[in-house]
Specification:
Blueprint lengths: L1 H21 L2 E7 L2 E6 L2 E5 L7 E9 L6 E7 L13 E3 L10 H6 L5 E5 L3 H6 L4 E5 L4 E6 L2 E10 L7 H5 L2 E10 L2 E7 L20 E3 L18 H11 L3 E2 L14 H9 L15 E3 L1
Parallel strand pairs: 3-6, 6-7, 7-8, 12-13, 13-14
Antiparallel strand pairs: 1-2, 1-15, 2-3, 4-5, 9-10, 10-11, 11-12
Helix pairs in contact: 5-6
Length: 289
């Protein structure tokens, strides 16, 4: 009888261990705005930028720093190698040239489930992707696998604060990503390309943010056209509003148009109680959440 009880105990430990492994959560930064988020059995790929390291990774209509037309942007760091199989969701904040490049459009499976801003669904379908769900701010889409649920909520991303740049850049999405298993919710907020705006204070209504993924870089902050994304003071405002458990920035260090070094965010947060919550993840490294 004692041996049988020991057997049951060991079996219970093994089953629990398998369940924990099955529901493991990981984060891998690929470079730029691109990362892979594994939430249990759901694998999410974001804003795919697969261009190689080089002087002409992509072209932008107007350089955010100099204003030069049709300017090429250098890729300083090659994209990290990652497993492109079994992607459940391709999550797109907006399809600008620095968020969805030609190499990704060629390489990715056109049968992927794509979630993107509603205004951009036609463009992404024109690129050959067959299954595109367009979300306006406040819209939700849900994926299920057994007892696991992935809920994606589109929230506002204000690419720039002032016109004419704000209108020129158009609307993009940020996302609240909720992963639920065994009645437990793990919640992620990815900003997309945005600046701070006061309505972000309303995002507390979504509940506790376990992982905060800000697009950094302060693009355009050194030019006369206007800043088109977060800098460290903006990011700190969001953090002080939402009090996330972990902060894992993306959209930094990779491309020549990123102006603010990621070390600036570290220095900013080190002067607060949030410094130890910041995880600056090297490209390619898989971090267990």
């Amino acid at each position: 009888m004692k041996s049988f009880r020991i057997y049951l105990f060991i079996l219970g430990v093994l089953v629990a261990g398998q369940a924990a492994a099955q529901h493991k959560k990981t984060f891998q930064w690929i470079g730029g705005p691109t990362y892979v988020l594994q939430l249990g059995n759901f694998k999410i790929l974001t804003d795919p930028m697969f261009s190689p390291k080089g002087d002409s990774a992509f072209m932008i209509k107007k350089h955010p720093s100099t204003g030069a037309a049709n300017a090429y942007i250098r890729r300083l760091i090659a994209p990290a190698v990652f497993d492109t199989s079994k992607i459940d969701v391709l999550l797109v904040s907006h399809p600008h040239a620095d968020h969805f490049d030609r190499e990704a459009r060629t390489a990715l499976n056109k049968q992927l489930s794509v979630v993107a801003p509603a205004a951009n669904t036609a463009t992404i379908k024109e690129w050959g992707f067959a299954h595109v769900t367009g979300l306006k701010w406040g819209d939700t889409t849900v994926f299920k696998k057994g007892d696991e649920t992935l809920r994606i909520i589109a929230v506002e991303a204000m690419h720039a604060k002032d016109d004419p740049l704000k209108t020129e850049l158009g609307k993009g999405n940020g996302y609240i990503i909720e992963y639920t298993v065994n009645h437990k919710v793990y919640r992620v907020y990815w900003t997309g390309d945005t600046v701070w705006f006061d309505d972000m204070q309303q995002y507390t209504r979504y509940g506790k943010i376990n992982l905060f993924i800000p697009d950094m870089g302060a693009v355009g902050s050194d030019g006369s056209i206007g800043r088109r994304g977060l800098n460290s003071p903006d990011c700190l405002k969001i953090i002080e509003t939402l009090h996330p458990d972990v902060i894992a920035p993306v959209h930094h260090s990779t491309f020549s148009m990123y102006i603010e070094p990621i070390a600036t965010l570290q220095q900013t947060l080190d002067a607060t109680s949030y410094g130890k919550k910041l995880k600056i993840v090297p490209a390619g490294k898989v971090v267990v959440l």
